[in-house]
What does this fold into?
Amino acid sequence: MHFEWKIFLTALGLAFILEGLPYFLAAEKMPEVLRALSERKPRELRMLGMTAMLVGLLLIIVLRGAG
It folds into this structure.
C-alpha cells in the first residue's frame, strides 16, 4: 500500500484553513466562544469532537463512494 503524501498534505492544509477561518472571520467573538467552550464539561466536549469526526468520516465515505 502506497501512502499518498500529496493527498495527506492537501487534507492537512485544508484542515488548517478550516480551523483558522473562524478566528479570521469572527476574531471579536472568539474570546466569548472560547470562554463558553471552557465552561462545558469534558464529556460534552468529547461528544462534540466525536460528532465532528463522525460527520467528517461520513462525508469522506459518501464522497469516495460517489467518485
